[in-house]
Amino acid sequence: MNTANGRNHRSRRGWKSYTLGAAACTALLAATACGPSTDDPRPSDRPSSTATPQPATTTPAVPTSTAPARPGATAPATPTAGAGSTGGTGRADGSTAACAKGDLSLSATNEDEKGRQVRHLLLTVTNVGTRKCNLYNYPYVQMGADAQAPVAVIEDSDPKALASLAPGEKAYAALLVSGGHRDTYEAKYVSLTLQGPRLGSHVGESIRAGMPGIDSLTVDDGGRVTYWMTASGLALRFIMSS
Questions:
Q1: Among 190, 89, 174, which residue's Cα sits nearest to residue 133?
Q2: 19 or 117, which is more confident?
């Protein structure tokens, strides 16, 4: 009897333990089913229906600084060619024209002692017209028909002043006929061509000077001429020592 009662008591305890274990297992499965799945996005990744949208920040436009316009440097206008001129010359200041052949007379004076070879000449132009005119730069001098090029200028003789001639006034250029160089030849005349305001330009036709009491000049490629000046002594100073 006691043995049968003990068996029954153990049987009821085992059933009770089984019942409690099954209930605990059921609760665990329910909790797992209700919990978040590992496939669901993290809470921080889920869109929030209550988040307030933030306005986009816009950087205010910074006005660009604009420097005031500076007046550009304008080169002086080149004088236009006047009547009877070649090479873009004419009136330099709007009222006084460059001297041309019809305005001037030309003479050549021997500055060497009598009996010596003529090597130093003073070219003199006189305004024989009725208007004032300007002589620019230096004359293009050609000595005789065999000259290969105009006589070179003495750059140091530039007076930095304009020779402006009223009617009856004179201007001068000193001419060294020969400088002791090669290529000697005989010249039966001296002629010159005037320049305009622009260096290298030509004004009108050439002017021929009478020979200074001789039939011809012995010249070479060492000849030199000065700029126009209104003082004859100053012009001669640049050639008399040669």
A1: 89
A2: 117
